[in-house]
Protein backbone atom coordinates (compact mmCIF):
# COMPACT_ATOMS: atom_id res chain seq x y z
CA UNK A 1 0.00 0.00 0.00
CA UNK A 2 1.37 3.41 -0.98
CA UNK A 3 2.01 5.85 1.84
CA UNK A 4 0.22 9.17 1.76
CA UNK A 5 2.29 12.32 2.02
CA UNK A 6 1.63 14.20 5.23
CA UNK A 7 2.33 17.64 3.86
CA UNK A 8 1.67 19.12 0.46
CA UNK A 9 4.37 21.77 0.88
CA UNK A 10 7.62 21.88 2.81
CA UNK A 11 8.20 24.66 5.35
CA UNK A 12 10.42 26.49 2.87
CA UNK A 13 7.83 26.16 0.10
CA UNK A 14 5.17 27.56 2.44
CA UNK A 15 7.40 30.54 3.30
CA UNK A 16 7.92 31.26 -0.40
CA UNK A 17 4.21 30.80 -1.20
CA UNK A 18 3.26 33.18 1.63
CA UNK A 19 5.32 35.91 -0.03
CA UNK A 20 3.78 35.22 -3.45
CA UNK A 21 0.27 35.24 -1.93
CA UNK A 22 0.97 38.43 0.02
CA UNK A 23 2.32 40.29 -3.04
CA UNK A 24 -0.01 38.72 -5.59
CA UNK A 25 3.04 38.19 -7.80
CA UNK A 26 6.75 38.29 -7.10
CA UNK A 27 10.18 37.87 -8.62
CA UNK A 28 12.90 35.72 -7.08
CA UNK A 29 14.65 38.89 -5.84
CA UNK A 30 11.47 40.18 -4.17
CA UNK A 31 11.02 36.86 -2.37
CA UNK A 32 14.65 36.75 -1.24
CA UNK A 33 14.32 40.31 0.09
CA UNK A 34 10.97 39.62 1.80
CA UNK A 35 12.34 36.56 3.60
CA UNK A 36 15.71 38.10 4.49
CA UNK A 37 15.02 38.80 8.18
CA UNK A 38 12.90 35.73 8.81
CA UNK A 39 14.94 33.25 6.79
CA UNK A 40 18.01 34.44 4.84
CA UNK A 41 18.20 32.43 1.62
CA UNK A 42 20.43 32.38 -1.43
CA UNK A 43 18.90 33.60 -4.67
CA UNK A 44 19.50 30.19 -6.25
CA UNK A 45 17.72 28.43 -3.37
CA UNK A 46 14.57 30.49 -3.91
CA UNK A 47 14.87 29.95 -7.66
CA UNK A 48 15.00 26.17 -7.10
CA UNK A 49 12.01 26.28 -4.75
CA UNK A 50 10.02 28.23 -7.34
CA UNK A 51 10.92 25.67 -10.00
CA UNK A 52 9.59 22.93 -7.74
CA UNK A 53 6.43 24.95 -6.96
CA UNK A 54 5.92 25.45 -10.69
CA UNK A 55 6.26 21.70 -11.28
CA UNK A 56 3.80 21.00 -8.44
CA UNK A 57 1.32 23.44 -9.99
CA UNK A 58 1.29 25.98 -7.15
CA UNK A 59 2.70 28.86 -9.19
CA UNK A 60 3.11 29.87 -12.81
CA UNK A 61 5.39 32.51 -14.22
CA UNK A 62 5.60 35.08 -16.96
CA UNK A 63 8.78 36.58 -18.34
CA UNK A 64 9.27 40.30 -17.74
CA UNK A 65 12.51 41.31 -19.36
CA UNK A 66 15.18 39.07 -17.90
CA UNK A 67 13.19 38.21 -14.77
CA UNK A 68 10.41 35.74 -14.20
CA UNK A 69 7.39 37.00 -12.29
CA UNK A 70 5.66 34.25 -10.30
CA UNK A 71 1.89 34.20 -9.76
CA UNK A 72 -0.04 31.91 -7.42
CA UNK A 73 -2.20 29.29 -9.11
CA UNK A 74 -3.68 27.96 -5.88
CA UNK A 75 -5.21 30.13 -3.17
CA UNK A 76 -4.02 29.79 0.44
CA UNK A 77 -7.40 28.46 1.57
CA UNK A 78 -7.10 25.51 -0.79
CA UNK A 79 -3.66 24.67 0.57
CA UNK A 80 -4.91 24.98 4.16
CA UNK A 81 -7.89 22.72 3.43
CA UNK A 82 -5.79 20.06 1.71
CA UNK A 83 -3.08 20.16 4.38
CA UNK A 84 -5.55 19.88 7.25
CA UNK A 85 -7.29 17.01 5.45
CA UNK A 86 -3.92 15.24 5.07
CA UNK A 87 -3.14 15.78 8.77
CA UNK A 88 -6.57 14.48 9.82
CA UNK A 89 -6.19 11.43 7.57
CA UNK A 90 -2.64 10.64 8.66
CA UNK A 91 -2.56 11.58 12.36
CA UNK A 92 -6.21 11.29 13.42
CA UNK A 93 -7.33 8.25 11.40
CA UNK A 94 -9.57 10.41 9.24
CA UNK A 95 -11.57 11.70 12.22
CA UNK A 96 -12.04 15.49 12.34
CA UNK A 97 -13.65 14.97 15.77
CA UNK A 98 -10.36 13.56 17.08
CA UNK A 99 -8.55 16.64 15.82
CA UNK A 100 -11.08 18.99 17.44
CA UNK A 101 -10.81 17.16 20.76
CA UNK A 102 -7.03 17.22 20.59
CA UNK A 103 -7.00 20.97 19.97
CA UNK A 104 -9.47 21.64 22.77
CA UNK A 105 -7.68 19.41 25.28
CA UNK A 106 -4.26 20.99 24.77
CA UNK A 107 -3.14 23.60 27.24
CA UNK A 108 -2.59 26.14 24.49
CA UNK A 109 -6.26 27.17 24.21
CA UNK A 110 -6.75 30.50 26.02
CA UNK A 111 -9.97 31.51 27.75
CA UNK A 112 -10.64 34.05 25.00
CA UNK A 113 -10.11 31.42 22.31
CA UNK A 114 -12.40 29.01 24.19
CA UNK A 115 -15.12 31.69 24.28
CA UNK A 116 -14.69 32.35 20.55
CA UNK A 117 -14.91 28.62 19.88
CA UNK A 118 -18.12 28.37 21.94
CA UNK A 119 -19.63 31.25 19.95
CA UNK A 120 -18.66 29.63 16.64
CA UNK A 121 -20.14 26.30 17.74
CA UNK A 122 -23.33 28.01 18.92
CA UNK A 123 -23.71 29.80 15.57
CA UNK A 124 -23.06 26.55 13.71
CA UNK A 125 -25.64 24.72 15.85
CA UNK A 126 -28.23 27.43 15.16
CA UNK A 127 -27.63 27.19 11.41
CA UNK A 128 -28.08 23.42 11.55
CA UNK A 129 -31.28 23.80 13.59
CA UNK A 130 -32.65 26.30 11.05
CA UNK A 131 -32.25 23.87 8.16
What's the layout of helices and strands?
Layout: H1 11-23, H2 28-35, H3 43-56, E1 59-64, E2 67-72, H4 76-91, H5 96-105, H6 111-130
Antiparallel strand pairs: 1-2
Please explain how this structure is put together.
- The protein has about 130 residues and is mostly helical.
- The chain folds into two domains: about 10-70, Orthogonal Bundle (Arc Repressor Mutant, subunit A); about 95-130.
- About 60% of the residues lie in helices and about 10% in strands.
- It contains six helices and two strands.
- It has helices spanning about 10-25, 30-35, 45-55, 75-90, 95-105, 110-130, and strands at about 60-65, 65-70.
- A two-stranded antiparallel sheet has the order 1-2.
- Helix 2 crosses helix 3 (about 45-55).
CATH superfamily of the largest domain: Winged helix-like DNA-binding domain superfamily/Winged helix DNA-binding domain
The rough form would be described as elongated
Overall SS class: mainly alpha
Spatial gap, N to C terminus: 41 Å
Largest sheet: 2 strands, antiparallel
> What's the average pLDDT?
90
Please compute the radius of gyration using only Cα atoms: 19 Å
Instruction: Say how many strands there are.
Output: 2
Number of helices: 6
Please trace the helix and strand order, writing H or E for each element: HHHEEHHH
What name is given to the CATH topology of the largest domain? Arc Repressor Mutant, subunit A
The CATH architecture of the largest domain: Orthogonal Bundle
Per CATH, the class of the largest domain reads Mainly Alpha
Low-confidence stretches: none
Which sequence of strands runs across the widest sheet? 1-2
Helicity range = 55-70%
Amino acid sequence: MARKKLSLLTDLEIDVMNVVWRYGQATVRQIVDALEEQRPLAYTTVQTVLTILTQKGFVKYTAQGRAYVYHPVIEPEGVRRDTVTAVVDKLFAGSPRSLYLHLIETDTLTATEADELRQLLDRKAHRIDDV
